[in-house]
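Run log, item B.
One chain of 456 residues. Sequence copied directly from the ordering sheet:
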Amino acid sequence: MIGPDYEDPSIPTPDQWNAKLVGSDGSSERDALKAWWEGYNDPSLTRLVELAEKSNKDLAIAGERLVQAQASRKISRSLLFPSVDGSGSATRSLASENTGLPGGGETSESWLTGFDVGWELDLWGSNRRRLQAAAASEEVAAEVLRDTLVSLRAEVAITYIELRTIDERMSITRRNLATQEESLELADKRFSAGVVPELDVQQAKANRANTAAALPRFRQQRAAALNRLAVLVGAYPQEIESSISANGKIPSPANKVATGLPADLLRMRPDVRAAERRLAAANAEIGVAKGDLYPRFSLGGTFALQAMDSDSLFDSASRSYGFGPSFRWNLFSAGRVRNQVRVEKSQTREALLAYEHTVLQAVAEVENAMVEIREERARIDQLNAAVAAARKSRELIAANYGDGLLPFQNVLDAERVQLQSEDSLVESQGRLAAAYARLYKALGGSTSDDLTKEEE
């Protein structure tokens, strides 16, 4: 077979991850990533993922592209076999009387049926290379479908976590509004008693209004997240709103993650496997292009029954046939064929570089996700301490203000610090939960699904 035979590229990968993640067991078993979203123990999230798998439009489009690739591979395979065309005709004609030729004015009939056979001999393997390229392209489409599914599951989880994070931030804002309302009532009572100036009351009102002003922004952000989630699952926002539980908390992921080793990404991530299959397809196209440098040999034949009336069409005397070999050779093309070979070789080198880049990008995404998880954990530890101290501080300052020992500005500062600390903690908890989803996506997710079912 003309053209280079494909060899799996040897891509060096690190022996271990640069980032260290507590809770990673180093397992490389694919089953460890199966249904990872269920580890959040959130029924609403599980339902959304299941709905997205059934109704997401990008996933359906990728599925149709796989069907197209499967059909294209079968088309390429058909070139290895003979083709047979059947034909037939029945003609009734009247000769002109004004031509002066014999038979003028007479009516005649002609009946014809038969078939043509053609077979191009694949002596140089050009058509077999074409089949290799089509088969590799089919595998690319299958991996793209899997990658779409992996990304879809992660995006549903990340968007759902974002929505729950916004809900929690709104809840914190309302709780702090209730506390600030109590402070306003206290300041108003002390002002009515003539103990403090009106400034305390106005400052309390301004503080409460500034806190309440965050709620419209949160509602806008929540609506945007809900709409994104609706698109992901292939439904309308009102349907999604009714399908998720009210007052849900930020889902907590399982701390143990099977990260495996960097080399595992070559078989775990569908986008890496798709890049490798693109390289295989490009390599096979070199042989297809080189086929035009050689002569093409074909076997052809014709068998027909032809008669002037239908009664004698199938008599042995009506037979006619012809068969024999033929060849075609492009002797001069002004360099077109050789330059096409150069194009295919360059595209193969490009595909190799793209594959290497995909591997590097995959390793970087896993490293980034693990660093994000590690640092968000550390940040949450500090924010928990900050929230506890801020709450205690506000209680003490409020009590001292009530006793006339501290000015009201201390109360305002304490309330702002408490709100900021609690809001930052919830935001960080949401970032941590989403980081786990990004890590599962970067590791390749659950890609054992059978998505290669052919449509007849």
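Observations after the first pass:
- The CA atoms of residues 386 and 421 lie 6 Å apart.
- The first strand starts at residue 83 and ends at 94.
Flagged for discussion on Thursday.
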